[in-house]
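Known limitations

Files may contain more than one protein. Parsers should not assume a single record per file. Below, a two-record file is shown to illustrate correct handling: read the sequence, read the token line, then continue until end of file.
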Amino acid sequence: MNPSYNTLEALEHKKSRWFQKLFYSSHIGILVVDEQRNNLLVNPRLCQMFGYDEFELTGANAEILHISHQSYLDFATKAFNLVLKGEAVDLDYPFKKKDGTHFWIRISGDTIRKDHEVLWTLVDITPRIHLEQDLHAKEKQLLSMNALVHLGTWEMDLQTYEVILSDEMCRILGVPQGKKIDFSFYLQNILHPNDIEIAQKGFEILLEGGETEGSHLRIFRDNGQGQKEMRYVYQKGTLLLNEEAKAFKIIGATQDITEYKKLQMELQEQKDLFEYQAYHDALTGLPNRFLLRDRLQEKIKYAKRYEKKLAVLFIDLDNFKSLNDSLGHDAGDHFLKELARHMRRQLRESDTLARLGGDEFVVVLDDIVSTQSVTEIIVKGLQSVATPISVSHKLIYPRMSVGVAIYPENGDDPDTLLKNADAAMYKAKNDGRHTYSFYTEAMTKEAYLRINLEEELKEAIDKNQLVVYYQPQIDAINNRLIGMEALVRWQHPDKGLLLPGKFISIAEESDLILYLNRWVMESAVKQHVAWYRQGLNPGVLAINLSVKQLSCEECYVLFEKLLKETQCNPEWIELEVTEGQLMQNPQKAIAMLQHFSDLGITIAIDDFGTGYSSLAYLKRLPIDKLKIDKSFVDELPKNYSDIEIAKAIIGLAHNLNMDLIAEGVETKEQLDFLVENGCPKIQGFYFSEPLAAEKMEVYIKKYT
């Protein structure tokens, strides 16, 4: 079946959009010329490379970019004709900038239309060319050095171990002419300590009648100013025998090769630098496309041998062109470098992060356990890059689309995995951006639901779709209301009322939890104050603190401001924090909770007994109340372990003079056990489910 016209038109439109993105945001110069060599299109990067404005290059003849008219003719003859014949061209060629300076370009070309228009891509390779030229010059210099310059001779008497030095040898060692030294003096006072063993081994080989190839050694000599300087020498000796074939002397020669050695090391450093530049991205220092392919090939071999899986993540930034257009390419480069550093910190040491060019990155995750583990890493990564990057005094929030291919399901070679991950990335773009897609459709369903829910949650906060419900807290001895816990609900426009279990984990993995909790605090405190002003007695309002709020000084300032603005009595408020959250950073939690406590607010530990907290920290925390977790209440009074744990928590609270409440109470048996054992304050469905504000007001009037 042939594709319809509309389908072809859509495909062409899609290609056009992606070409525009590549054209304007690429860090590679792009030039389109017609058959007469006139410039039809020039992208911003090319203008930046040559120092021209777009209007100066567009419509001008390509000769304007060449060093001379003759160089233009040479290039046109060599390159244009090959391209027009359908052959790809890839050349290193010198060009000139607007200011007349010359620089080197790697230029590649191919025809793009039947009317002989040609698309050229240009990359500035000037640093690489200069390095190559420098390397060639130093190699030539190295080869031309005379191997026998500054040659000193010496001889050692094997009876006395006295060493006689030539004048040149004295100069090399930095000792006065005519000075006689012995072998031990040479070892202890002249030779580098780390090279003594080498010299001794060579000496022993000679004594045994063997031959040596000589030794490269380091010595220390006086530089004439009372200071020691290290020099490099090459030393070779020969054993002499007397008429009775007995060894009596060693003669040798020593050459000062310091300048040769320094040049050799400098040359090696430059070769290492050259190799590094060949395999790393110049902007970010990350592996480039070539090194990525090599590493991916090795990881595939390893995964195949040990029957492991790996994941390839193709990452493309969303709306990067807008950043370049508005702030300039220098700002865009700064953004990419900062983002690369941030992404690298999120990965394991064994993972690979590479930059392909422009705003495209690739991550290789090796030894993955499951598709779900990959999903969790991506979700965490997308949420972590929500931290803004400062660019030109503006805060830019990174957004990216991610495509995922899994080895071996989606390919068993680098090219296939990269191609499939790239295809999945385009699907993520089409699905709304700042999301991710697996190459296999079946793998994406849960991922889409999660990322979509996060986006919807952001809208829910902005559009006031969140609602505060209140669950009563009761003194079971007199059956009176003593307070309530504020619990958030999401009135989803399509899915109806959602409980926290559906969205809190998503909020906690991003900074959304800060905005969500702040909204809950403001709404609940204002409602609570309103009830008191109506003459009602709603008791204490319990509000949950997140671990991020415990690390945020601003949250304390905002809460203090909220109390003042609403004229809320601090004694009406209780802040709950889970035991697990406290243990993530106990020192920080102690300091922050002390701030709240100093305001006169009650502090409670929620889910007590589940977080493996240290009693030493518990003693130092400004805690007023313990809350027995529902997991210890569910099987009361049947489960022996839960009975003992509940009794232990009740006893601990009493001994520390702390208040106490149990949550999740649903049956009379649970209630009776808790009351009988000293915990009469109860929260749970036995008395009431969480209620909307209107119903909670009725409850307050009935039970106070």
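...continuing to the second record:
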Amino acid sequence: MQTVRIPFTNFQFGEISPSLIGRTDIEVYNNSAQKLTNFFIRNEGGVIKRPGFKYKVRLDSATGDSGIGTRIVPFIFSDDEKYIIGFTDSSILIMILDFDSSGSASAGAVTHIQTITADVDGANINTYLSATNIKEINYAQSGDVMFLTHETFQTLKLVRTSLLKFEVSKFTFDVRSDAKQRFQPYFGFQPQGYTMTPSGSTGQVTLTVKPSGTLADWASGQSYTVGTLLKDTSINQIYRVSAAHTSSGSEPLSTNANSASYQAIVYFDTTGSKSGSNYPSSKHVDLTVRYRGQEIDIDSVQSSTQATGTILNKLFVKLDINALRTINTSNVVEVTMPLHNLSVSDSITIEEADAVGGIAVGNINGSRTVATIVDENRFTFTAGANATSSADGGGAPKIVCNAESGDFDEQSFSALRGFPRAICFHEGRLWFGGSVSQPDSLFGSKTNDFFNFDVGSASDNDSIQITTSIGELSAIKHLVSNRDLQVFTESSEFIVPAFQNTPVTPTNAMIRRQTPYGASHVKPVVFDGATIYLQRSGTVLREFIFSDKEAAYIASSVSTLSGHLIDNPQDMASLQAAINRPESYIFLVNTDGTLAVFNSDRSQKKAGFTQFTWPSSGTFKSVCTVDERTFALVRNNIGTGTEYYFVTELDESVNLDMSVSASVSSGTLTTSNTIFNGATVAIVDGNNYLGTKTIASNGTVSVSDLSGISSTVEIGYAITPTFKTNPLDINTQEGPTTGMLRGLGRVVVDIKDTLSITINSKNLEIRNVTDDPSQARQAITGKKEVRLLGYSRDPQVTISQNDPLSLQINSVIAEVQI
């Protein structure tokens, strides 16, 4: 019989998929494990049992996932003023770190200081947040303001107004000082070829939208050809003839005998029932449309083609320089105005014109009448005096008119068109992306002017508004500021590239497609030089990083080896070199309530996954990091069996989950935390595990049977770590031993600072023979040996512990007999 010593000295690839257990031919096999539950991977290659999550705040009771406290995110105002924000389906919870409810310093505390149930205008938070959209909300913070975006509600501002006070308000775009212009994005949502005709150029006007072409009133007994535009005067509705016919019946055409031949023209929203002559529930009401760049607020909607609005300024077109031309001795002035759409005898008003060709300002400006139409870009009017020379000039005048025009659009973001999904700050701009009606559009504010999205004249600091334009719809879901502005969509990954020593501007901004995978709703995180994101399927974690070899970004899977640990995650957070160690980690909250924990050290080419589980029936619901601290929102039964949400903190100093301190006096343990009343808890006293006790309804339990117990102990729920090697396969001269009976003999484990360990259910005694048993045991560092018996076709080493104390495994050496 041959004895072979098999070393496991490196677990850098973490827990690998069951599908890889047979791959004894690859390097990964000997540098991974079949099971790593409740362990962190160390950069040196070993694994260490995770510390406990310390109890911080209990939130209100919950009866299901639609209850309170379903997501937490960080809010960092300054080095010493930090918060956790909790989103629920009815409120926003504010928790401050390291202060109490009076504002006094309290190191390590997490204090719930405020519950916000309405915005500053009195609208309930549940009109914005719901159980279905909380996980999809994107956010970005600058100073004392956090912006919250989702396609179903107007962007919100969560504003810190003082140390212990926040408020919620709606995001609004800046307005010009005279209130005649709103600096918001606009877009033409109308079909190609549609026009708008205002009934006047100032004040309140009627707006009619229709396809370009002549509009006639419908009349019975007339023959109509395809494409003819008709107006039903009884309901102010415009129709297009869709099949040649002779009209019959009577208005309205929607119920006419020839209704199949009439196609209703639709632009204005007609949600709800008509009241009188209006649609009071129309989503166009209170929206802003623009006619040739001038804004009109919609007051009411009469039909799908007609609305009433109030012009904020006046309807005018600003002409180019020297747009007027005179002819010597003539009072006829030719005007160059692209696509003017005017007709002979139309009234116009000329403003801000300079003298030209000897005609004084007073004889040019004012009310005029169109005399002739030269072409679609030029017309003439009669001035008040003759020119003394032929000349081009007139400065840059304004032409006030209300002719039919295809140059109209409306605000990009509204309840009708949807609101932005994605948001971030990048290069001094606030960026929005991906609304329902403009899913592939990207909007950047003016530089350092986050509420101003005026495109202006495309100066370097003006707003940037671009689309992906790749021939397929790519709905933007996330924006990340990294090496470039990274754009994650449902189908692909894009960048807005940076330029050396040159910022992104309206004239150089472009979107370039990089990879074709698509992202889920989980917010990506910047980690270890890359951006980590969850693929749309919810089963693959990828890193988006620039490749010098490819001269482009790539999106490699980092979860290929451990795909079984990725279960449609709902939340993700990154931790950079913390928990008293140099490693960095990513935490993913799975749908099943577990945490998938990813460790990466790019410089050493090490990366792997482990899994965290919550004791008993509890589950992880959300996770966030605040600088070097990690917080988990968990859902767990309390002693009475009622489920609650709890904010907990990963704390190196504790051994148990939901860990709290309890006092002991005269043989009685007392806890002030009512969450444990009626619960069975584990008790840890320093380096000793004292077993479990059931807390009475008054928060006490007798511990008189526990000799030598300290005056303060730790209570909570015991964490069960599990480390299981891959099957111990050997490649011999005759080939691999896979599937053959093999004996597992001696096992040597190299441990560090360990207080409890079992190997294949065999407990290792931590105390040395020279230890004083009346004293607390000391953690052991070094190599421990255990001899095992038995044969198996898949011999494995399983390491766990009986006592919930410290455990670190550096390596395992196993002897196998074949």
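Parsers that stop after the first record will miss the second one. For reference, the second record is described as follows. The chain has five domains: 3-32+722-817, 52-174+412-631, 186-311, 320-395, 654-717.
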